[in-house]
Amino acid sequence: MLPAQDPDGAPRPHPDPAPGRGLSGFTKRSESVYDPFGAAHSSTSISAALGMAVARDLDNATAKVKGRPQKRRNAIAVIGDGSMSAGMAYEALNNAGALHSRLIVILNDNDMSIAPPVGAMSAYLARLASGGAYQSLRETAKQLGKLLPKALYQRAAAAEEYARSLVVGGGTMFEEMGFHYVGPVDGHNLDHLLPVLKNVRDAEHGPILLHVVTQKGKGYAPAEASADRYHGVVKFDVISGVQAKAKPNAPAYTRVFGESLIKAADADDKVVAITAAMPGGTGIDLFGKAHPDKTFDVGIAEQHAVTFAGGLATEGYRPFVAIYSTFLQRAYDQVVHDVALQNLPVRFCLDRAGLVGADGATHAGAFDLAYLCCLPKHDRDGGLRRGRAGAHGGHRPRA
């Protein structure tokens, strides 16, 4: 939803970026009417869009009672397949399916991790499944089915589930959560995509999940060849793709940490490393090359990463959890409940601590000292020397 007005009805301005600062790297409500919700940390879009959809429904219910015109506004969440590894996304899907609010979720799958689109038949099925006639017929069948005796209804439901699985394939999971699944659709073929988007936009019932398959960096050869290097970029040459990064005089913290952790693991076979979808940004990629069997990238799942480390620690291992400071905030209950209160020797290695200007306020590690120093029996290490010592001794959490 793209609100053009503030709650009081006044038009929301579109401010020019401050001189020398430019635009934010992520959506920011104060910056544009086209930024309906601030974002930077992963997997929040479905929850936010569901809140907007329910707010719309409540407003329309009030308008109906008072005889006022109702608004037809679409709440649309866009989420990548990588972000679907976070539990928050499934919490939102589960709640949306239960509320039956008219919500549209567009799943941008650029790793084809769920299902690839297969030619014209895939496009035809997507148009069919997203069309109003199909959805109305299906909704009517559901209502009629409820009038059947229980035994017949259960058999009909089982038959419908089997038939649905033949059409939606990899979308069965979303259908079971209460969504109407459409796709997969080739996101680079506009002749296939646009009709489906129009059908989804005009749908009377919800929620709907549209599965769009894309290629990261498509159309720009350097990005296609090395998509991970174009997640965030500095000034670069458009022809060659070479980024103009200044060479530092000192080695990067991530390299120093990664090499130090390798030495610790060489000396102690109980040392393991865990990261949450940020191996390159934390130095764990270096450790992974040296000790692949002791490296665990759990995806965008910080909560799981911390408790997983706690489980390893109970069995005598010495887990090092390397996460950006700003992302560990998402797993604070696990740090407290699953590690600190049990006094488990988990080592938290917080990258990007302090004020890191490039990515803005959402990525600043400004709160780690406050939220870790208050924990009981929690050692705060200020350097790698103490961190290396911690790999071989100590029986309490460290950060």
UniProtKB/TrEMBL annotation:
GO molecular function: 1-deoxy-D-xylulose-5-phosphate synthase activity
Record InterPro entries: Dxylulose-5-P_synthase, THDP-binding, Transketolase-like_Pyr-bd
Any Pfam family: Transket_pyr
Alphabetical GO biological process terms: terpenoid biosynthetic process
Enzyme type, top EC level: transferase
Region (Disordered) residue spans: 1-29
Alphabetically ordered keywords of this record: Magnesium, Thiamine pyrophosphate, Transferase
Cofactor: Mg(2+)
Signal peptide residues on this chain, from the entry's feature table: none
Transketolase-like pyrimidine-binding domain residues: 251-397
EC code: 2.2.1.7
Subunit relationships: Homodimer.
Cross-referenced PANTHER family: 1-D-DEOXYXYLULOSE 5-PHOSPHATE SYNTHASE-RELATED (PTHR43322), 1-DEOXY-D-XYLULOSE-5-PHOSPHATE SYNTHASE, CHLOROPLASTIC (PTHR43322:SF5)
Protein name: 1-deoxy-D-xylulose-5-phosphate synthase
Source organism (scientific name): Methylobacterium oryzae CBMB20
Taxonomic path: Bacteria, Pseudomonadati, Pseudomonadota, Alphaproteobacteria, Hyphomicrobiales
